[in-house]
Structure formats: C-alpha cells, structure tokens
Amino acid sequence: MEVKNCKTCGKLFNYVSGPRLCPACIKQLEDKFHEVRDYIRKKPKSELAVIAEECDVSVNQIKQWVREERLSFDKDSPVALECENCGAKILTGRYCKNCKDEMKNGLNAAIAKPDAPKKDRKKMTSTRDAMRFLNR
Ligand SMILES: [Zn+2]
Ligand SMILES: [Zn+2]
Fold first, then answer.
1. CA distance linking residue 102 with residue 125, whole number of Å
2. Cα–Cα distance for residue pair 11/25, rounded to 1 Å
3. What is the DSSP string of the chain?
4. Could you tell me the distance, in angstroms and rounded to a whole number, from the CA of residue 42 to the centre of ligand 1?
5. Dist. CA 11–CA 15, nearest whole Å
6. What is the pLDDT of residues 109-133, one digit of tens each?
7. Domain locations in the chain as residue ranges
8. Domain 23-79 falls in which CATH fold?
C-alpha cells in the first residue's frame, strides 16, 4: 500500500488500486453516477452537455461511465455514440454488438488453437524466403 494524493481533492490517502481517488471522492463520484443515471432515466432525450451541466459533472466523466457500460442511453437519445471499431451507432460501451461478438469469437478461436500463432510465424518466414528468392 502507498500513500498518494487524491487526483480530485489533493488529500493524502492510502492508495490500493483503481483510480487515484480518496475514499471521500470515490463516494462523491458514486453519488454523481447515481444522479446522472437517474437524470438520464427521467429525461432520456437530453444531450450529453445538458446532462453534464444539470448534474455538475464533466462530459468526459459521463463518457467514461458509458465506456464502462455503467450508463446506457435510450435509442431515442440524441447522444451519438459510435462503435470504436466500425463506427456503428451504439447506446453504451465502446463497441457495437457485432464487433463485440467478433472479438469474443476471435478470442475463443485463439484459446482453442494455442499453436495458431506459431504456424503463422512459420508461414511468414517462408513467405519472406520466397520473396528473397524472387528478389535474387
Ligand atoms: Zn479526494
Ligand atoms: Zn462495430
């Protein structure tokens, strides 16, 4: 355990893990989160900037909660979130369902075939050899 300054209030506290915030600020942030979540529930058609202003929280903080999938928007919401992979419109998180499924499948495939990368490396070497041959 180390002692660090809280990122928000600057107070010294015993840092364990996660964001560099003291327990008081973490609690405050949690309260904010609930406030924002309730606000979005009550007024699902609000713009991000309006939510931020009404709840006195930064737009970036709201986006962070969205990326963590703690907050999600209604499909009628004007908030435009885009999949970081393909740019499709999404309501929460960082990726659309398709990209998430693809990533999951890719991950499973990698686990199922642990020798796959080795094979690829071999192929790459032989391709390089072929190219060397062609360049000669
Ligand atoms: Zn603090
Ligand atoms: Zn996508």
1. 28
2. 10
3. -EEEE-TTT--EEEE-SSSS--HHHHHHHHHHHHHHHHHHHH-TT--HHHHHHHHT--HHHHHHHHHTTS----TT-S--EE-TTT--EESSSSS-HHHHHHHHHHHHHHHH-TTHHHHHHHHHHHHHHHHHHHH-
4. 29
5. 11
6. 877 765 555 555 555 555 555 556 5
7. 23-79
8. Arc Repressor Mutant, subunit A (1.10.10)
**Coil, strand or helix: which one is 5?**
strand
**pLDDT tens digits, 5-63:** 999 999 999 998 888 999 999 999 999 999 999 999 999 999 999 999 999 999 999 99
Q: Which residues are in the CB-under-5-Å shell of ion ligand 1?
A: 6, 8-9, 22, 25
Q: What is the pLDDT of residues 22-32, one digit of tens each?
A: 999 999 999 99
Q: Residue 23 Cα, ligand 2 centroid: separation in angstroms?
A: 36
- Ligand 1 centroid distance, CA of 36 (Å): 20
